[in-house]
Specification:
Blueprint: H1 4-11, H2 15-23, H3 30-43, H4 49-56, E1 61-66, H5 73-87, E2 91-96, H6 101-111, E3 119-122, H7 128-136, E4 141-146, E5 157-159, H8 162-176, E6 181-185, H9 194-206, E7 216-218, H10 223-236, E8 242-245, H11 248-260, E9 270-275, H12 278-282, E10 288-291, H13 294-309, E11 318-320, E12 325-327
Parallel strand pairs: 1-2, 1-3, 3-4, 4-5, 5-11, 6-7, 6-8, 8-9, 9-10
Antiparallel strand pairs: 10-12
Helix pairs in contact: 1-2, 1-3, 5-13, 8-9, 10-11
Length: 338
């Protein structure tokens, strides 16, 4: 592997000059700069990022830790975060924990502060104490898409008002005239989707209604779980005319189940989700959903992390995105007359 010193010898300059040329810093004459770049090209030199990070105590990369890259929301967020990182001259490492805290801790121990200057955390199922230890070691941590703007966590975060998203979804179904509604919550009762469900219940209360708890299912946040829960719920409550889902994946599963039961969306049953992943736009019928500002949340996350790295922002701090918005598509309609 070609070294910086070999490039410097070929170009007839010091190693510091080569470094300044490659990082576009310091005052280097144009002829010297061209001579260095020619030597770099001739020798095929590539910077050793790990060695640079260890030598300088800072890395050119940032890390994004997600619970499951198989969830289509995370690649969409990662793409937006990567674009934002590149706009600031940084690279993004995506770490997949598969909801395993031990894997997450291993990533934090091996990457945070060495290969990456800081870490974005996306529902990685990691204890707050582990994340705070990482921050104390000098690697800033930002929690992305925090779901409780009225309850800031102990670490810097970018929050989305998911309770408002749930209320928007509930109001839409109620305003269409639906009374018999089932609910699919893509987490445990007190899990990450609890705020979305509370928002839906807020909408019911505003309308002077009380949602029957037996018509709620707490399930994994997957298409398959949404399918199975909907099949079971419609067999138990065939009078339902609409389904609220706390995320798009269970909502898509619900639509598949309704079709397999010989029913039509939205003529027989309306379905609404939350998030607005690409699959929601491509499904047939296209899924009505409450869109969250994924791209701007990713950009805000990168900007906050860089501010913390550069010590331009105090920790902890929470920044809130724009309010989620209803996206009307073909999966919701007024209930048919019976």
């Amino acid at each position: 592997m070609t070294t910086l010193s070999e490039v410097a010898r070929l170009a007839g300059v010091t190693s510091a000059t080569v470094s300044n040329v490659l990082r576009q810093r310091g005052k280097v004459g144009e002829q010297t700069r061209l001579r260095v770049l020619e030597a770099v090209e001739q020798l095929g030199y590539r910077p050793h990022l790990t060695a640079r990070a260890l030598a300088e105590g800072r890395a050119p990369t940032l890390a994004l830790m997600v619970s499951s890259i198989a969830n289509p929301f995370y690649p969409e967020f990662a793409l937006a975060a990567e674009r934002a990182a590149r706009a600031h001259g940084r690279f993004l490492i995506v770490c997949n924990t598969n909801d395993d805290p031990a894997t997450g801790r291993a990533y934090l121990d091996q990457i945070a502060g060495t290969l990456s200057d800081g870490v974005l955390i996306m529902n990685a199922n990691l204890p707050m104490d582990d994340l705070k230890k990482t921050e104390k070691r000098g690697a800033p941590v930002v929690l992305c898409m925090w779901e409780k703007p009225d309850a800031p966590p102990e670490l810097p975060s970018i929050a989305v008002d998911f309770r408002a998203a749930g209320a928007i979804a509930g109001r839409h179904l109620i305003e269409l005239g639906h009374h018999d509604i089932g609910a699919l919550v893509g987490s445990k009762k007190n899990g990450i989707h609890a705020e979305r469900y509370r928002g839906y219940l807020d909408a019911c209360a505003e309308a002077g209604r009380k949602h029957a708890q037996e018509r709620t299912r707490y399930i994994p946040d997957t298409v398959a779980a949404g399918y199975d829960a909907t099949m079971a719920m419609l067999k138990e409550f065939p009078q339902l005319t609409a389904i609220f889902a706390s995320n798009d994946l269970p909502a898509l599963g619900a639509m598949n189940a309704i079709a397999d039961m010989g029913l039509n969306v939205p003529r027989d049953i309306s379905v609404i989700g939350i998030t607005d992943i690409q699959w929601a736009r491509l499904s047939r019928p296209a899924l009505t959903t409450v869109a969250v500002p994924t791209d701007s949340a990713a950009e805000m996350s990168i900007e906050l992390l860089l501010a913390l790295i550069n010590r331009n922002s105090k920790s902890p701090v929470m920044r809130v995105t724009a309010t989620p918005e209803l996206v009307r598509r073909a999966s919701t309609a007024p209930p048919k007359k019976r």
